[in-house]
Amino acid sequence: MTTLVRVSELKKKYQTGEVSFEALRGISLEIAAGDFVAVMGQSGSGKSTLLHIIGGLDQSSSGWVQVGEHRLDKMNQTDLAVFRRDQVGFVFQFFHLVENLNVQANVELPALLSGTKSKKEIRQHSTELLERLGIADQAHKHPWELSGGQQQRVAIARAFINSPRLLLADEPTGNLDSASGSEVLDILGEFNRQGQTILMVTHSAEDAARADSVLFIRDGRLVDRMPGGNDKAIAQRLVGLR
């Protein structure tokens, strides 16, 4: 199986005046193409920091990340922006939609910025994604007219508009009710079964159980990895991190 993500001895230190904080303390891991991996740990353990560095949103203090053929520590800010645009899809807890754009325009925005496809091709792809996610009838509405679950579906469609190799999801159900959250995970699972690689940060053992494997982080260190599928075993392991 082909490895898509390699992380080696990743460290991240934040400095505020004379106060420093080590968010990551030497994490190494690999994620195969087509895997669905969940990351768990207590608040402040470094989960989101890890996700942001893998996605090129933040830079490490030392160590390195490679996604496909891209070594992120060798890239300048312009290269990282292109990498984020073309290689990675992001889904966050708070949907980060553009309020003055309608649903279809929100979905199409990254593809228009990329400039690699015609407007006709982009419109066709965005329409297909909206139909697949069951919100084609909402295409001309604005984000503030939608429910939370519908807004997250729009965010997922936007994340997939450039056909990314890697999807990063940071608490994608954290701002949703249980029914909407379950629907979002169903959608992510469907994309994964069709070959999409997904790395998801979550506090929920039930959500993590949807993944193929679960990584556990404590105090900036990777302390365990176990198979998904069993939410009770995952929850028990999470309690052991306290």
List the helices and strands and how they pair.
Blueprint: E1 3-16, E2 19-32, E3 36-40, H1 47-54, E4 62-67, E5 70-71, H2 77-87, E6 88-92, H3 103-114, H4 119-132, H5 148-160, E7 166-170, H6 178-193, E8 197-201, H7 205-208, E9 213-218, E10 221-227, H8 231-239
Parallel strand pairs: 3-8, 3-9, 6-7, 7-8
Antiparallel strand pairs: 1-2, 1-4, 4-5, 9-10
The CATH top-level class label: Alpha Beta
The number of distinct β-strands equals: 10
Relative strand content: 25-35%
Question: What's the CATH architecture name?
Answer: 3-Layer(aba) Sandwich
Radius of gyration: 18 Å
Q: Considering the protein shown, what is the CATH homologous superfamily?
A: P-loop containing nucleotide triphosphate hydrolases
Question: What is the number of helices?
Answer: 8
Quote the CATH topology: Rossmann fold
The end-to-end distance, rounded to whole angstroms, is 34 Å
**What's the number of structural domains?**
1
Q: Helicity level, as a percent range?
A: 25-40%
Q: Describe the strand arrangement of the main beta sheet, using strand numbers.
A: 6-7-8-3-9-10
Output the helix-strand order: EEEHEEHEHHHEHEHEEH
Please state the structural category: alpha/beta
Task: Kindly describe this structure.
This protein has 242 residues and is of the alpha/beta class. The protein has a single domain (3-97, 164-239), classed as P-loop containing nucleotide triphosphate hydrolases (Rossmann fold), CATH 3.40.50.300. It is built from eight helices and ten strands. The strands form two sheets. A six-stranded mixed sheet has the order 6-7-8-3-9-10, sandwiched between helices. A hairpin with a 2-residue loop joins strand 1 and strand 2 (19-32). Helix 5 (148-160) packs parallel to helix 6 (178-193). The longest helix is centred in the C-terminal third of the chain and has 16 residues, at 178-193. The two termini are 34 Å apart.
